[in-house]
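Trying the structure run again after the queue cleared.
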Amino acid sequence: EIHPKTSGGVITVGTDLINTERPAFRVFKTTTQTSSAADEVIDWDEVDYNQGSYWNSSSNRFVAPVAGLYLFGATQLTPNDNDQDSFYYRVNGDPARGMKMRNAKGFTQHRTVSGTFLVQLAVDDYVDGVINNSGGSVYGDASKTWTTFWGYLVG
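Done. Tokens:
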């Protein structure tokens, strides 16, 4: 039996509590970005949602408000060119705790790369995305669907 409250963001389910305000975000690109140096932070153009306000648009990173297990995912479209592009999603600047993605070279068309990763974060750990190679590019347009980054606290 579910008894929703009208305020406070908590729903009681039996004896368990589910917080409907758990940290969660989704951002996307509306413009194409070409890096001028290796490991250039991806500049996310717009925020779809930012539950709890833990996505920082100034630094283009998510900052964990509580310790826990977090799930992150990204989908990226590369520009219509023949280049190989690499993308890292890092925890505190370390791609080994996050995710690495790379598209294949030799195709003169858009290519999509995507992935997810589950990671244990401590309070104030941050997660961001970078274009790993100088001159690498990530596509964005008004549809707001081709290049996205999201994450949320699992528990």
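The chain has a mean pLDDT of 85. Worth checking whether this holds up in the mutant runs.
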